[in-house]
Amino acid sequence: MKLLTIVIPCYNSQDYMEHCINSCLVGGEDLEIIIVDDGSTDDTPKIAKAYEEKYPSICKAVIKENGGHGSGVNKGIELATGMYFKVVDSDDWLDGNSLLNILERLRQIARRSRENSIDMLIANFIYDKDGAFHKHRMHYRAAFPKDRVITWGDIMHLRKGRYILMHSVIYRTDILRKCGMKLPEHCFYVDNLYVYIPLPYVKQFMYMDEDLYHYYIGREDQSVNEERMIKNIDQQILVNKMLLEAYDLNSIEDANLRKYMYNYGEILTTVSTVLLLRSGTKENLRKKRELWKYLKRNHPWFYRKMRRGFFGITTNIPGRVGRWFAVRGYRLAKKVVGFS
For labelling, which of 44, 87, 250, 275 has a CA lying 20 to 30 Å from the CA of 102? Predict the structure, then answer.
């Protein structure tokens, strides 16, 4: 069994995927790298096959019909043979030294008994925004004790805006299978489900203060570009609703985990609401009202709690004052989720 499976979903990624793959290859034979071509029309499948031929004991090329990012992740989970699992987007990359340090720690953990093992490892990531001189680092030093096995009860201060994202997380592979997560196809923003649905199955985890992941922001066609997020707002709302439907938060016994999951649902709903307000079209303002009616009808506890909070109050103020607050909510959301 490999120590870590890295899945790289690719769609028309010929211009940058090699940089991503090469950054992962630093891990050597401890890794299984599954390069999933999602029905590309450029040389992506050719490049994937070339890596499989050159590194047959590490790289595996999977050529499939187009199904979107979630479909690529689903395929990776299905095929993974590694004890642990990480997704790396094809336009992003990993820091070599941090990868080696994390692999060494996972190797040590793999030799432990199940009781002293971990279900999740969290590391830092860098917002590598194109043209920005100072790169913003997302770290968790104030939230988690470093370099030891912890539980949700050991959280120190995981404030709003400091979320576990796809870039920062490595899961035990069997946790992803046990939770039964199936990401929707042909849909953006499924990474929100990926970092939410497995959490109640995570009993023990570890934080390493390593700047592992470089998250590139700057391509015009990125799904986190504001204009594209508004254009794809129906997919954002779908993911928002799927996340809220996943669990009755009152059934989550651990208070720290329940609070964290509420906060994540709150910020995702805020992003959906703010984007609908930013658009300003009659159709999207109608969708905003419908979203909040859905919350009130289907998730009354969540609705009441959010409606009384800062985000719920400020994004539901009518008229010019409401739009003013929406702009400020938009700026905060940008900082939280990193869209451009």
Answer: 44
C-beta separation of 222 from 228 below 8 A: yes
End-to-end CA distance of the chain: 39
Residue type, 20: C
Spatial contact of 62 and 36, defined as CB atoms under 8 Å apart: yes
Angle at 34 between CA 148 and CA 211, to 5 degrees: 35
Q: DSSP for 72-92?
A: HHHHHHHH--SSEEEE--TT-
Tokens of 163: 């979320």
206 has which bridge partners?
A: 121
pTM of the model: 0.92
The pLDDT value recorded for residue 253 is 94
Q: 66-70, 311-315, 334-338: which has the minimum mean pLDDT?
A: 334-338
Between the alpha carbon of residue 247 and those of residues 199, 244, 256, 271, 273, the distances in Å are 11, 7, 15, 20, 21
For 181, list phi and psi in degrees, rounded to 5.
Answer: -65, 130
d(CA 80, CA 5): 6
Please tell me the predicted confidence (pLDDT) of residue 323: 63
What does the alpha-carbon distance between residue 95 and residue 214 come to, in Å, rounded to a whole number? 7
Write the DSSP string, 96-115.
Answer: HHHHHHHHHHHHHHHTS-GG
Q: Strands 169-172, 84-87: parallel, antiparallel or unpaired by DSSP?
A: antiparallel
Strand, helix or coil at 334? helix
Q: What's the pLDDT score for residue 340?
A: 41
